Amino acid sequence: MAIELSVQHVQSKSKYSKLIDLESFCLQQLEQLTIQYPICFARIVYYDALAKSHQELINYAPEQANLSQSLISFFRKEEWLNEYYETFSLNRINLDNLELFCYICPFGYKNKKHEYVQLLTRKPLPSKLQKYVIQSVTLLSKYFDIYLEWGQQKAEIQLLEHIIQRATHQLRNSLGLIGLYAKNLCLGLHENSHREQASIISESIQELDTNLTDLIYCGQKDKSRVSLQDLRSVVGESLKGLLPLTHQKKIQILLPDTSTSLLIDRLQIKQVFDNLLSNAVHFSPESGNIQISWQVFHSEVIIKISDQGSGLSHEDAQKVFTPFYSRRPGGTGLGLTIAKKIILDHQGSIWAQNSPEGVVDPFCSFT
Predict the structure, then answer these.
(1) Do 241 and 279 fall into the same domain?
(2) CA neighbours within 13 Å on the CB side: how many for 140?
(3) What whole-number distance in Å separates Cα of residue 289 and Cα of residue 287?
(4) Distance between terminal CA atoms of the chain?
(5) Which residues constitute the domain of residue 88?
């Protein structure tokens, strides 16, 4: 089994860090078009996948009088749009009784409706300006893709937060009940081995409750404390906690000699490594090897954790990050779910696939 993570490098910024709302971005692009002479009117029709509806925005060149409502209504009916033009191509359309020149540049077709930028100009557009218009529309389309990806990631994070909060609430209820009975046993028993055992149970419950608090912390983005951290040090801290298990199974850990620095929440990313490495140790054979490696690629650091376990079936690989799914006896099925939540909070993604050797490769990507 192999796990790959791609985390944001220290000097890079998330592609979502300067993201503005879709309407504001579209208006900015329309304004950039209408300050180019001879463009006097720009209109965009697009599908907002997050709002699940088509939107329209209009902008006029400086000192350009607004078009009549009848003409705007005519454009909205789209009876004049009776052809399927090639995307990212600028097409001139002849409209009767219109003194201005009309152009359209399509960039998509969503929910049975065209997405396009429409321009009205005082004279035909020169070739250089036509190229500029196509570049602007292409930029708009790419921004739509990024905005949709951000929205989907945000929705997934909110869903995982809800699942984690609900699961921890249920666990706390059970722990509270067990703790109450343990205390009652302590009070009702005389000083003997049975009372000592009940006291140990009570103390263990308190320790579990503390660990559960740390678990909840790791699932909350608003409590992230991002700082410059040494990657090898964070991984080493996780491995240190697993030493009794690795010694018991005689597992050899292979680590790179070099390291790199990352802007991360140390506790949260350590929780990711705790979960991933714990699984690697559990599924490794006796005297097996676990190899951990990383490489820097542009704005990302790719981290790979490989063990010599038997891997997962294709069906299991699709469920590996699903809440409450676990192949480990007694497992809660929340470890990898929490890891995924943390990775998403760090602007990343995580996935799994089978390697040529037949084991499964889970991947994690921070952008």
Answers:
(1) yes
(2) 32
(3) 7
(4) 23
(5) 22-151
Q: Are residues 344 and 254 in the same domain?
A: yes
Task: Give the number of C-alpha atoms closer than 13 A to the C-alpha of residue 341, restricted to the C-beta side.
Answer: 28
Q: What is the dihedral of CA 183, 187, 188, 190, to 10 degrees?
A: 120
Same domain, 87 and 164: no
- Sort 318 into a burial class: Cβ within 10 Å, 0-12 / 13-18 / 19+: middle
Element (H, E) at 77: helix 69-77
165 and 126 share a domain? Answer: no
Name the phi and psi angles at 34, rounded to 5: -75, -10
**Tens digits of residue pLDDT in 173-211:** 778 888 888 888 888 887 777 788 888 888 888 777 776
347 phi-psi bin (left φ>0, alpha ψ -120 to 50, beta other): left
Q: Based on the fold, state whether residues 165 and 196 are members of the same structural domain.
A: yes
pLDDT tens, residue by residue, 236-269: 999 998 999 999 999 999 999 999 988 888 888 9
Is 65 domain-assigned?
yes
Model pTM above 0.90:
no
d(CA 138, CA 106): 10
Query: CA Rg, the chain, in Å?
Result: 29
Structurally, how many domains does the chain consist of? 2
Same domain membership, residue 352 and residue 305:
yes
Structural domain includes residue 240: yes
b/e code 165-185 from CB counts within 10 Å (16+ = b): eebbeebeeebeeebeebeeb
**Residue entry with tokens 């984690």:** 164
